[in-house]
Structures are given as C-alpha cells and as structure tokens.
Amino acid sequence: MTYFVGGAVISLSLVDKVTDYENSLTVSEREFYGIGQTNNKQLFVMRNNKHKVIAETFLYQEYKQKNGNTFVSFHPKEIGFVEFDISKRSKNIHISYIKVHPEFQGLGIGKELLAYVESYGKEKGCKTATLDCLSTYTDGVSTLVFRKEKGQNDTLRRMKERGKVVDKNMKFYIGAQYHKQNNRKPQNDYLTPMIKNKLCYRMAKVTNLLSQIHFRLARHAFKTIKLSQKDFVFLHKVFSTNKMLEPTRIKGKQL
Ligand SMILES: CC(C)(COP(=O)(O)OP(=O)(O)OC[C@H]1O[C@@H](n2cnc3c(N)ncnc32)[C@H](O)[C@@H]1OP(=O)(O)O)[C@@H](O)C(=O)NCCC(=O)NCCS
C-alpha cells in the first residue's frame, strides 16, 4: 500500500485528481513537476516556478452522507519549499532558503527537494549550486540555531560537554556533496558558504506505483497512463537519451 505523506492511500483515481490539479496550475505556479519519495516510501509531489520549488502532499477524505451518497474532499498541503535564483552568466543556481515543515523533517523530503532544485538548475544550464549554511546544532534533545548571538558560544560548549552534538544542516549539505567554498562571502558572517561542483539529474527512487503514473518532470499537461513492462523498456530507452529534465530518471535494473 502506498500513501501520500501523512495523507491518503493512493489509488489511481486519486492520482488522476492530483495530475488534474497540477495540470490546472498556471505557469507562474508550475513550470515542471515531479514525484518525490520519503524514507518510508510515502509519495509527495514537487512543482516549481522560476524561483521556488514547493513540496506538497494531498489529503483526501471520503465521508458517507446520511442519504447514502459519498462526499469527497481533496486538499493539497505544503510540506516544504526551496527558494533559489539562477545566474545564467555564472551558470550557477543559488539556493537562498530550504525548509521542510517541522512535522515532516527527517523523512528524506529535504534531500529530495535539494535533488529536484539541482535537476532544475542543470536543465537550465547551470554547472554549480551554491548556498549559505546556517549551522543548527542538536544533541538529540535540544536544538541551537547558531547565529553567533550573545551567549550562543557558551550554550554550544555546554551542549558539547553533555554529549555528542551534530550540526544537522551541515551534515545535510555534506551528505548531498556540498563542500565549503572559500572564495565567496556569505550573506551574513554567521553563515558558511558552500558549493556543489557537479550537478546531476535526480535518480528515480519511485518504482511501483509510479510505474502507473508518470516518472519524470512534466512541463506540459498529460493524462495518467497505465504502462506495461514493454512500454517501460521502450520509454527507458527514450528517456536515457532525452535532454529534458528527468529528475525521476529510471534506472535500468528497476524496470
Ligand atoms: C535542513 C532541512 C531542510 C533538512 O530537511 P529534512 O527533510 O529534515 O532532511 P532529510 O530528512 O532529507 O535529511 C537528509 C540528511 O540530513 C541530515 N539530517 C537531517 N536531520 C537531521 C538530524 N535531526 N540530525 C542529524 N542529521 C540530520 C542527515 O544526514 C540526513 O541523511 P540520512 O537521512 O541519510 O541520515 C530541515 O531540517 C529544515 O527545514 N530545517 C529548518 C530550516 C533550515 O534550517 N533550513 C536550512 C537553512 S541553511
């Protein structure tokens, strides 16, 4: 069984609704869209305009009315976003802010958002991605967002005395192959400038249900289709040579 993040069991009719919803959005709300998967295999949708990627889940509820009819409600719900700017001249995509809403953190959504925005940058001709990391220390109990404010050095020292402390944001970016960038000044002196030198298209993690939906970012509206194994092999060949954005590019062995 596949769920949307914190939402409904996904059926093909629900997928149709989601696709219709995405397709109905204006260009300023959606240029591309694609599917992400959390660590526990729940699905969500990511869509972007020229400055922002939004990750959203879909809540779907059915109510039985007194007269026996079924009443259905369908709500998109934002679970995270990334803001960015592309510099065509320096072929760089700068990520100005990334956020996953607190109740959805630690599920792999941030990682997917980052991969998506990098794919978008690559599609637009970028070679590198940069960002300024805001160190956020955690000892598993408390969290310290480090802005070099008064007393924060002492708080950090006390946390370290009590046990192991991890900078979770730094770990997040290093895990995504970013490293410190020495030749750029960050927006604020408490931030660490970071860069990723080689952008890649995002690989598909999604297999089962998505084989019945769609598996790459879509610029244009399209209908839900049910694919056979044969179609898959064919489409894989097409997509592995296609230059369009393929953030859910399918690995041969997953077919
Ligand atoms: C930073 C942020 C976007 C990460 O998103 P997320 O969905 O929680 O992160 P993911 O679940 O994709 O985690 C990816 C990696 O980050 C690291 N990470 C994330 N949360 C962590 C935590 N609490 N402790 C340690 N490492 C952590 C891990 O390396 C993890 O990899 P793993 O799952 O293989 O262990 C999110 O925590 C957030 O919105 N924070 C508040 C806003 C913010 O600080 N933005 C960044 C400004 S620079």
Could you explain the architecture of this structure?
By secondary structure, the protein is an alpha+beta fold. It has a domain at 1-81 and 203-255. 24% of the residues lie in helices and 29% in strands. It has 5 helices and 11 strands, in the order αβββββαβββαβαββα. It has an 8-stranded mixed beta sheet with strand order 1-2-3-4-5-6-11-10, with helices on both faces. Strand 7 (136-138) and strand 8 form a beta hairpin. It is globular. Mean pLDDT is 83; it is low at 208-218, 220-225 and 238-255. Coenzyme A binds at residues 98-100, 105-111, 133-134, 136, 138, 166, 168-169, 171-172, 175.
List keywords for this structure.
alpha+beta; eight-stranded mixed sheet; 5 helices; 11 strands; disordered C terminus; binds coenzyme A
Gross geometry: globular
Q: Bound compounds, please?
A: coenzyme A
Unreliable stretches (pLDDT < 50, length at least 5) are 208-218, 220-225, 238-255
Proportion of helical residues: 10-25%
For the biggest β-sheet, the strand order reads: 1-2-3-4-5-6-11-10
Helix-strand sequence: HEEEEEHEEEHEHEEH
User: Radius of gyration over alpha carbons?
Assistant: 20 Å
Distance between the first and last residues' Cα: 19 Å
Strand content: 25-35%
Number of helices, where a helix is a run of at least 4 consecutive DSSP H or I residues: 5
| Number of beta strands | 11
Structural class: alpha+beta
Q: Which whole number gives the mean pLDDT? A: 83
Task: Characterize the largest beta sheet: strand count, sense, and whether it forms a barrel.
Answer: 8 strands, mixed
